[in-house]
Design brief:
About 35% of the residues lie in helices and about 20% in strands. With about 190 residues, the protein is an alpha/beta fold. Helix 1 (about 20-40) packs parallel to helix 3 (about 115-140) and helix 3 runs antiparallel to helix 4 (about 145-155). The radius of gyration is 16 Å and the shape is globular.
Length: about 190
């Protein structure tokens, strides 16, 4: 199985956002380990950029365009798009969307360069949400979206801590490099 992360970046922003792409590559390797630990699945990881050029409003990149890209790249590969726009519709509370072997989240640009903690808090957590939704869907769990949204709400409003991981991809109490949803309540 392949999990392919695609960092969608505007052509004019590409040079300024290389730090983020480097984080995406490390995060992709982290999720290989995390998915194996949480869900028992071993993915081969791929990572690249999708560079977008300015277009007219009628040709603007949207969820439908990404789904078409996913189908052209191969439906049997789990494509995960990290985008500079929100999905038009979603039942997720993390500004993400998932379907069969497809995921996307709004990738939030940090205000300051080289801010790993911001990327972990705003983006890595959202990626974990969408990956968890897709893994639970694959397991045949019927009410997974509601279960995951309930946990996400606890993270945002009830002081439930995100799981913290260091550069070595192991749990840490120190400064985290990666943050994920707490999956204990899902009884995996």
């Amino acid at each position: 199985m392949i999990l392919h992360f695609i960092f969608v970046v505007k052509e004019e922003d590409r040079d300024k956002r290389q730090f983020e792409y480097e984080y995406v590559k490390k995060m992709a390797q982290f999720f290989k380990v995390w998915i194996k630990e949480k869900f028992g699945k071993d993915y081969e990881i791929q990572c690249d950029e999708m560079i977008t050029k300015p277009t007219s409003i009628l040709q603007r990149l949207d969820t439908h365009t990404l789904i078409r890209d996913h189908e052209q790249r191969g439906k049997d590969i789990f494509h995960f798009y990290l985008t500079h726009f929100r999905p038009l519709w979603t039942d997720s509370t993390c500004e993400g969307y998932h379907a069969e072997n497809f995921g996307m989240v709004l990738w939030q640009k940090p205000k300051e360069e080289n801010d790993d903690l911001y990327l972990a808090e705003k983006n890595c957590t959202a990626v974990s949400n969408v990956i968890t939704n897709e893994q639970m869907r694959q397991m045949g769990r019927k009410k997974h979206t509601r279960e995951i949204n309930d946990i996400w709400t606890k993270h945002l409003f009830e002081q439930l801590e995100f799981e913290q991981y260091g550069d070595d991809f192991k749990r840490t109490e120190g400064k985290p490099t990666f943050l994920t949803m707490d999956t204990r309540e899902l009884n995996l």
